[in-house]
Write a structure and sequence with these properties.
The chain is of the alpha/beta class and about 350 residues long. It has 2 domains: about 150 residues, 3-Layer(aba) Sandwich (Rossmann fold), CATH 3.40.50.720; about 180 residues, Rossmann fold. About 35% of the residues lie in helices and about 15% in strands. It has a 7-stranded parallel beta sheet with strand order 8-7-6-9-10-11-12, sandwiched between helices. The chain has a 5-stranded parallel beta sheet with strand order 2-1-3-4-5, sandwiched between helices. Helix 3 links the parallel strand 3 and strand 4. The radius of gyration is 21 Å and the shape is globular. The two termini are about 20 Å apart.
């Protein structure tokens, strides 16, 4: 009987929900021929992560940074690191490749939940619901005039699994969909009833913009003062991809001066959001603590996808490019006698 590959998960703090999810993951892993070990994220440190993963064939990690030195220290045994979620800006892919460690992500597993959160933030921003709550709390009722989403133009920046899910769930709003994604294969936008446009056109013409691009050097402050100045005064913008994609100072300034109607952010340049952030004083922005994927459905999908990717990897099945982030690892791994 073949020896089970050991998978160590460094994701989630202890709570009844995560206890249940990890027990379920353990059973699912066993059916795949994997030994699943969960180490609570409570008290996480880079040193503790390295020590745990040195005794693993594969690891599953959260959003914590993982640098080249850490990869070199786990690479004697650990052949694969899977990132819960989609973003990978905190992972040193070059360092992983040098160490011969494959890095993958759970692409698409949380797409529906993140897309639903984006739509919720768009609707909340269009109807100024944060301001409405504050009015009720004040005891002096007044009305703020919002705007409807139906029949308008929705711009989606980044048309991967999440962007496409958003396009699907907004069909009933009869929207004109504008898409920006320089890496999108030909014909994909058209299949969703959308058409590709440049950034300036989207910022100038759309009534709502939803940001779903990864964070890279190229997308740093993609949403900046110049582009916000192009937007309509009754337009809104939301982002639940990565914080540094949005220039928060510029957004706060545009909101404060009424240059746009409203906004929603679930991600920030620094998390938790600093107490002196100008965003906290505004009543036309909805703020959330990076929890767009925090639904019971998405969480299980992420666990399941991470284990499926791990099983496929050790079975020698090719991982699609939407999952494997550093295919170059293989040449280095062969030289080391790895996978």
């Amino acid at each position: 009987m073949p020896i089970m590959k050991r998978v160590v998960s460094l994701y989630a703090d202890r709570s009844p929900l995560y206890e249940e999810l990890n027990e379920r993951a353990k059973d699912y892993a066993r059916d795949l021929g994997l030994e699943y070990v969960w180490i609570s994220h409570e008290g996480y440190s880079p040193e503790a992560a390295v020590e745990a993963l040195r005794e693993a064939d594969a690891g599953i990690i959260d959003v914590d940074p993982f640098n080249g030195e850490m990869f070199s220290r786990i690479s004697d045994r650990c052949r694969l690191l899977v990132r819960y979620g989609v973003g990978f800006d905190a992972v040193d892919l070059e360092g992983a490749t040098r160490a011969g460690v494959a890095v993958a992500r759970t692409s698409g597993a949380n797409a529906q939940s993140v897309a639903e959160m984006a739509l919720a933030m768009i609707l909340a921003a269009k109807r100024l619901l944060v301001r409405a709550r504050k009015v009720v709390e004040s005891g002096v009722w007044s009305h703020s005039i919002g705007s409807e989403l139906r029949g308008g133009r929705l711009g989606i920046l980044g048309f991967g699994a999440i962007g496409r899910s958003l396009a699907e769930i907004t069909r009933g709003f009869e929207l004109d969909l504008y898409v920006y994604d320089p890496f999108l294969p030909a014909g994909v936008a058209e299949r969703y009833g959308a058409h590709q446009e440049d950034l300036d056109t989207i910022f100038r013409e759309c009534d709502a913009i939803s940001v779903h691009v990864p964070y890279t050097k190229q997308t740093h402050h993609l949403v900046n003062a110049e582009r916000l100045a192009l937007m309509k005064r009754d337009a809104v913008i939301v982002c639940n991809s990565r914080g540094n994609v949005v220039d928060e100072e510029a957004l706060a300034d545009a909101l404060r001066k009424g240059r746009i109607l409203g906004a929603g952010l679930d991600v920030f340049a620094v998390e938790p959001l600093p107490a002196d952030s100008p965003l906290l004083s505004l009543d036309n922005v909805l703020l959330a603590p990076h929890d767009s994927s925090q639904t019971t459905e998405a969480l299980w999908n992420i666990y399941k996808c991470a284990l499926d990717v791990t099983s496929d990897f050790f079975a020698g099945r090719e991982l699609g490019k939407e999952f494997l982030l550093n295919p170059e690892y293989a040449a280095r791994a062969r030289r080391k006698g790895g996978a």
